[in-house]
Each structure stands twice: as C-alpha cells, then as structure tokens.
Amino acid sequence: MALAALRAARRAPWLSSTSSRALQRKLFSVSALRRNAAVTRDLMTGEFTSLPDIEQNRLQVVKSTNLRPPPPSSSLVFGQVFTDHMLMIPWSATNGWDIPKIQPYGPLSLEPCCTVFHYAQTVFEGMKAYRDGNGKVSLFRPDMNMKRMVNSAKRIALPTFDGDALLELIKELIRIDKHWIPQESGYSLYVRPTLIGTHKAIGVGPPNEALLFVICSPVGPYYPQGFKPVALYGTTEFSRAAPGGTGGFKLGVNYAPGVVPQKAAAEKGYAQNLWLHGPEHYLTEVGTMNMFVVFKKDNGALELVTPPLDGMILPGVTRDSVLSLARKHASGKNKLDGLTSDFIVSERPVTMSEVKAAAEANKLVELFGAGTAVVISPVDRIGYLDEDMLIPTGSDGMGPVSRVIYNELVGRQLGTIPSEWSVTVSES
C-alpha cells in the first residue's frame, strides 16, 4: 500500500517539474514509507499528511566505554548525579522523528540561535523508577507522564509523538542503567524526559527542528531523617499562573519566574510560596507542587479539598493518585486503614479567608503539597498578610489524611502493595 501511494504520488501533476521531483526525493523517501505505512502525502497538494512517529524498533544502542561506579547512596543530592547513558531522538519538519539512540551521557551540541535559548521552547516530565526487595524495577503511572508531555508539547507548538513508543524506549534506557538504582528502601531513579525546540533561527514560531532526550538521576528519599513540615509564604506580590495561560502545562517557562519569589519567601523565613490568585486570594499550588487542604465539617466528617483543573493548575500524577485513592476510600471501593469513613473529596476553589476561618474555628485539619519528588509535603505554618497561621501536624510531622495516603502511595510505588499503577521495567 505504501509503495502504491508513492507511485501514485509520482504521477501527480504537481510533481511534473524537475524541482518538484527533487523535493520529493528529499522529503519523502521509499525507506520512510517502508518504516511507517501511515506516512502519507496528499495527492492533490503534495503536502505531507503525516510524518514518521517515534519507533522503538529502530533503536540504536551505543554503550559507554567509560562506565562509572554509582556513588554511595548516602552521598546523593537530588538531581546532581546522572547515569552513564541517555536517550536522544531528533525531529525535523521534513522527516519527522528520526532514529532513537541510547548513547553515553554527555553534552549537547546546539547552535546559540536555537529557539529553546531565546523563547523557552521546552517541555519536560519527572517520573521515578523503583526497585523492590526482589530486584524488580518498575515505573509508577508512566502513561500519565507521557500524555501530559504530549499535551504540553501541543501548547507551545512542539512536535507531538507516540507516548507508548517513547515509554518503551525509556524502559530500555532504565534497563541499561538499572544498576544505578540504589538498593536501599526509599531510593529511586529519577527519569527526566525533555523536549526542546532547536530551530536554528531567531524568530517566534513553530520550530522546524526539535530534540527529545531523556536523562536519569539516582535519588534518595526527600526526607531521609523523617518528615519535616514546611512553612509557606502566602504570596500576594507574585502570581504563578493566570486563566488562559500556561500554568496547566509542564513547561520550562513556568519555573524560572518562580525563583525570585522563592528567594523572597526564604528571606522571610519560609520554605516555599503558597501561590494565591486574584483579589479573593484563591489557593492554587505550593511551590512546584499541587496543594491539598483538609477541613472538618460541622457533622464531624473530613473534607479533602484541592483546586480544580481550571487551566492554572498542573494536572499532577501524584495529585491524581491522591484523589483516586481518596475517592475509592470515600465510596467504599477500597478502604484505607486509619482513615475515617466520614470522608468527602472535593475539587473546588478554596480561598485564604476560608482557610483562615477554619483555623480560627479549629476546623482546619491539615494542609499539604503533593508531587513526584516529595510525594507528600506537610505544612505547619502559613505566613499571610503579616500574620502566621499555624497548621496542625502530628508527632511524625504529618496529618491524619496525608499519613494514610502517603503510606498507600509509597507502598504502591515500591511494590509492597500490589497495584495496576506499577508498570514493570525489569524483573531483576
């Protein structure tokens, strides 16, 4: 079928000139058709209707000849050490996704005019590979990371891709470097897929070239000495996101503007910003994490609240996992030991005035952040309008809801609790 399409294309009137035939040879080879029968061209206009997607069966592997021993687990600092190999997949507007290659970790060679440097044309993901007590290596809900990365790419006109194919390539990268995953409980391999625009020109527009790469970093538990609640600064001076903007996508452009507010919060004695929005001071996110708050209702029931996905809130994988576990508990489908049966789960707007009123009435149960790096981050204090609001925490630094959710989540991640969210990479 593919070759027939090519022959028909050659007979098309728009290819009658020598220059058109040369363009055909340049942009649309028989080999491309053989690789992917879905790669087609409109017979009337000559325009491509599709280009080669990422194909895991074209993978090339060039292993490093300078393998390094992984450092002692106790010395690991988050995001500072990287494994021996990385995955690289170039893309162009003329040829689509090119050959995937796993190669030795090393510097990228990019021209200084590349659009990523000038217009922040980049998206990324964060996911973790875990090793259980039997040596089995697994990823936690990686399909959600792939879907989010594709949606983020669409938002800034970067090329999209087959997330399932990319995931298979990531698995192979992890298998090659799996000895970098520490044996100790609570440790993992942080996986960072990144897509950048590499168009060699100064000018704002969709890139004609891009590069997708994946690097891996062994990391330890976020709280190696036990949970330590953090203090938040309810910032009214800065905004993280706005309606119609990019807050709901995992883009590089969303993170650098948070550095100055973070430094300002630290100077005031707070660990992170609590991002507020609008004159009502709606709670949105905590630092780079999703935010949850627990209220005690008049009838004694507990309500777990998180802001809705209104375009400003990042659809976090941990956020979705917390909500899924909480809703199954509330419905009785999967009860969680230690969590009250009188339990409500809400995705709704929540303001600082509501949080403050609940605290004054002793109905504020807890507040916590949730994200890939930390899983759960309890909060014990919020600085807001020149006052400190104290948030209850238990002797272990956690609250009655976050403690139960955290234990269930980590159990599923580490494999001690069987779960359909755990995707096997390697059996040993």
Automatic annotation (TrEMBL):
CDD domains: BCAT_beta_family (cd01557). The modification N6-(pyridoxal phosphate)lysine is found at K250. It catalyses: L-valine + 2-oxoglutarate = 3-methyl-2-oxobutanoate + L-glutamate; L-leucine + 2-oxoglutarate = 4-methyl-2-oxopentanoate + L-glutamate; L-isoleucine + 2-oxoglutarate = (S)-3-methyl-2-oxopentanoate + L-glutamate. GO terms for molecular function: L-isoleucine-2-oxoglutarate transaminase activity; L-leucine-2-oxoglutarate transaminase activity; L-valine-2-oxoglutarate transaminase activity. It comes from the Eukaryota. GO terms for biological process: L-leucine biosynthetic process; L-valine biosynthetic process. Its cofactor is pyridoxal 5'-phosphate. PROSITE patterns: AA_TRANSFER_CLASS_4 (PS00770). PANTHER family: BRANCHED-CHAIN-AMINO-ACID AMINOTRANSFERASE, SUBGROUP IIII AMINOTRANSFERASE. This is Branched-chain-amino-acid aminotransferase. It comes from Phellinidium pouzarii. The lineage of its organism: Eukaryota, Fungi, Dikarya, Basidiomycota, Agaricomycotina.
